[in-house]
């Protein structure tokens, strides 16, 4: 395919799709599609409420346009799908967004077009699910009438250092010619370079184990935390000492949520079980991390009741997004913590500087309070290490507490203080 005639269609403009569209829009004619009208209105005004793309980047992306009409992508010759891949309530892959994207692409597809998937999936999903579905709907044959590949996203939301250009991109294609083309395409925007995988399945597997590995490493830290809590040893003091060895992996305990680390292992688990192997370590790690929220809840309640000898203490949870300095609260364990504590009939308020009026509606069930009260709470639980809370500091957070109130700082946000509780 001639790069001079290239016209790209980016399907999905979230944390992954928008930065990708911006970069390609600097080089090639690019159309970004998203079904959310409000999102497109904002992007046309050069506003990214996710705060991942600055206005200047929109200006530099001179060949980029946005639309809520999938038909606007009809004349594209490369389609890149960047859609969510969540799990359902039974922790099985929920492919409704992938299915819709395949359906949309099949209506647009012309001969010799190329389709690239970027979403995290299980090894085999592109070739075993997506392509057969597109073939059926389009009446075109893969690797004959159209070609395809997989290049997993590695976006880290709100990370201003590891931006899309600075992260090595894994690429793959349905045949050698397509693989080379896709690799060259991403080289046009990725200054860190690319890695051309030997097959689509290898690229899919590489992506899914990245987040699974992180999930397991955090699970180990959380299990250590459970052990050291029994032994009355401060976990973070242990990790600080252990990290003086050059090859110690310095992971931290905490709540594991979000749309990647707490989800992707289930995709690998699903495919593994489908082929007859029940993963042991992955299952154990997932259970450890999912159960860790109960440890946090029970410890917060126990230490507060012991301090005040009160049946229904009042709690303030600081942090609701799934990670620090980020607006995303999908699958947030901090949100779940609030819900679990409310079920115990405690008074539980919560605050997060990244939650605003535009997305608060999704949190209405947890009794969100935008104005927190001074001298009211028996315990403040800091669950997310936002820079905002670091700047707020011990003195200002103490104002929210009753006399002798507790701060349970599970992320070591504040400097060490003898009156605070840590993991």
Structure notes:
39% of the residues lie in helices and 14% in strands. The chain is built from 12 helices and 13 strands. It has helices at 17-25, 37-44, 55-60, 96-108, 125-138, 176-187, 200-230, 235-242, 264-274, 281-308, 333-343, 387-398; strands at residues 7-11, 29-33, 64-67, 78-81, 114-117, 147-150, 169-171, 194-196, 314-318, 347-351, 377-382, 401-409, 420-422. Helix 7 (200-230) crosses helix 9. The longest helix has 31 residues, at 200-230.
Quick structural gist:
With 423 residues, the protein is α/β, with parallel strands linked by helices.
Helix content: 25-40%
Number of helices: 12
How would you spell out the order of helices and strands? EHEHHEEHEHEEHEHHHHEHEEHEE
Alpha-beta content class: alpha/beta
- Radius of gyration from CA coordinates: 23 Å
Question: Which regions are unreliable across 5 or more consecutive residues at pLDDT < 50?
Answer: none
Shape category: elongated
Spatial sequence of strands, sheet with the most strands: 3-2-1-4-5-6
**Main beta sheet strand tally, sense and closure:** 6 strands, parallel
Strand content: 5-15%
Task: Please report the distance between the alpha carbons of the first and last residues.
Answer: 56 Å
Mean of residue pLDDT values: 92
The total count of strands amounts to 13
